[in-house]
Task: inverse folding
């Protein structure tokens, strides 16, 4: 049977992690269909139809899908579920909110946040903040799976020409209303997909000092991350949080500044290819995962770091 | 209004996890256990709503082995009125947990059910959403702010892009983020008083729900270790290493 992937989008563009989820979904079964629930989201369906891994796009257009409400999405997805062996989505706040609602109605025990597809029914997933990996086999007839996007490469975006079929909406929920979304706009790369991430922790001492981080981020075209301590202290907004309950990032270079390295933070970044830690406490646990550790006062080290970067002739962007 | 709050006993968040050599799981013997951190936020929020005069009763529920009761006792010490302990012998999956909670909701008729957004042991992030589905109630997940209005809740949710605000009709399920509030500590007199508050014990097997596992855990292993790094002496050396050795800038 085929796999149904639930697309995440904003009615204009496909959200990037959908492409990572497509890669994982097509490893489960090559007959991959994508469901787009949206309002005037023709650009989204067109983009997805051009992904070579996608065999069919199902498009449901209705104003009840203009904003993402799990209750409304679920009733539409359940209508299509009988034709599929697997329902999948990315394991970000989109898929985490949605998939269990679907799974419960299908009487399926969901497999959350997989990092590897071993076979159609067997997956690898991290538990205990990534301090253990569990190999699990789902014995449910229909499987609901969410995918840790950073563990899979994004799928190619062009070259395909999947058929787009229209489908009818399902009933809307009258008990949930969308009020507003406060999105933080930034010209920087997205935290989840950036090649370089520089993060600040409690050691930054206040929000203004994050300027030291953002200057370097500008130079390196990096995304800015933060520990939970820094977000809780109000230095920076929640969408920057890296960790067990924040975002999981796997950049080529992760620079942790003034972050001690609690288990919960390591869970969100320790798969990064190269890790740099700058901390004045030489015993900080962050050094245990760092490829390059610099024991220094960040208020001296960061300006120096910027001036050393300025001396380089070329910087990879 | 009546609020049911679900709490789970997990390995304490500060404990360094050790994987068993036979690959059957992680070591839990002689390991410090405590309440799943965001479940503490769920209790705190319920207590604050009650203190504001908007709720009459808070019932704390846990599902687990005998010792899981400790988490209910802790909830009673910070302000829950009574407790329920549903006894199960083995670890059960979120789907089974939500089926048990549905039975309890049908018996207790709460207006709201609160719980943490995710348990820090299995990291599943499923139970609240599943319970909402089984009850056909609205769900407000990853809540960092809750405003109780007449028969509706306005909930601010932490999402990848920032914050989202939704309105849900009561009855509703809310799963709580760590940023929702600052959980209080129980005072000694309240800990003593909590010992007298009732905890009803129920055997899961008496509830008539299927709690058999659907997922086989084949093995649990340690994640691959990172190779040891080095300390650099200066910023200059760091930049040179990143440029010429790691080749990432």
Result:
């Amino acid at each position: 049977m085929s796999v149904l992937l639930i697309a995440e989008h904003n009615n204009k563009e496909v959200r990037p992690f959908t492409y990572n989820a497509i890669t994982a979904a097509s490893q489960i079964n090559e007959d991959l269909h994508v469901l787009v629930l949206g309002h005037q989201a023709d650009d989204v369906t067109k983009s997805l139809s051009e992904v070579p891994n996608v065999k069919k796009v199902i498009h449901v257009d209705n104003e009840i899908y203009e904003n993402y409400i799990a209750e409304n999405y679920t009733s539409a997805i359940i209508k299509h579920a009988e034709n599929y062996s697997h329902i999948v989505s990315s394991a970000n706040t989109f898929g985490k909110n949605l998939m269990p609602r679907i799974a419960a109605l299908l009487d399926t025990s969901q497999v959350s946040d997989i990092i590897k597809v071993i076979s159609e029914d067997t997956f690898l997933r991290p538990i205990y903040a990534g301090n253990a990996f569990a190999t699990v086999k789902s014995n449910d007839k229909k499987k609901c799976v969410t995918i840790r996007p950073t563990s899979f490469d994004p799928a190619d975006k062009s070259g395909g020409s999947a058929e787009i079929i229209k489908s009818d909406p399902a009933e809307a929920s009258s008990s949930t209303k969308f009020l507003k979304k406060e999105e933080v706009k930034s010209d920087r790369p997205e935290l989840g997909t950036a090649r370089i991430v520089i993060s600040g922790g409690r050691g930054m001492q206040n929000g203004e000092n994050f300027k030291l981080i953002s200057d370097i981020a500008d130079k390196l075209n990096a995304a800015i991350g933060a520990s939970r301590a820094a977000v809780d202290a109000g230095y920076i907004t929640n969408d920057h949080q890296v960790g067990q309950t924040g975002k999981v990032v796997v950049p080529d270079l992760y620079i942790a500044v003034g972050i001690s390295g609690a288990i919960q933070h390591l869970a969100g970044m320790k798969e990064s290819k190269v890790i740099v830690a700058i901390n004045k406490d030489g015993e900080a646990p962050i050094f245990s995962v760092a490829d390059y550790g610099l024991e220094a006062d960040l208020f001296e080290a960061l300006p120096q770091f910027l001036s050393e970067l300025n001396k380089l002739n070329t910087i990879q962007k | 209004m009546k609020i049911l709050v679900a709490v789970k006993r997990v390995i304490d968040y500060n404990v360094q996890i050790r994987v068993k050599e036979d690959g059957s799981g992680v070591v839990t013997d002689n390991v410090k256990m405590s309440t799943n951190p965001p479940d503490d936020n769920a209790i705190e929020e319920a207590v604050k709503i009650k203190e504001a005069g908007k709720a009459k009763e808070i019932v704390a529920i846990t599902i687990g082995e005998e010792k899981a009761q400790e988490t209910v006792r802790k909830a009673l010490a910070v302000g829950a009125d009574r407790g329920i302990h549903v006894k199960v012998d083995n670890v059960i999956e979120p789907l089974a947990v939500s089926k048990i909670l549905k039975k309890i909701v049908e018996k207790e008729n709460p207006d709201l059910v609160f719980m943490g957004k995710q348990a820090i042991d299995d990291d599943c992030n499923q139970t609240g959403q599943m319970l909402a589905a089984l009850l056909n109630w609205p769900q407000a997940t990853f809540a960092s702010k809750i405003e109780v209005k007449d028969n509706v809740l306005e909930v601010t949710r932490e999402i990848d892009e920032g914050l989202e605000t939704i309105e849900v009709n009561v009855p509703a399920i809310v799963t709580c983020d760590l940023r929702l509030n600052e959980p209080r500590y129980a005072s000694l007199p309240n800990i003593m008083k909590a010992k007298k508050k009732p905890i009803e014990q129920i055997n899961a097997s008496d509830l008539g729900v299927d709690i058999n596992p659907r997922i086989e855990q084949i093995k649990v292993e340690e994640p691959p270790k990172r190779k040891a790094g080095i300390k650099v002496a200066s910023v200059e050396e760091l930049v040179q290493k990143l440029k010429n050795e790691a080749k990432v800038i």
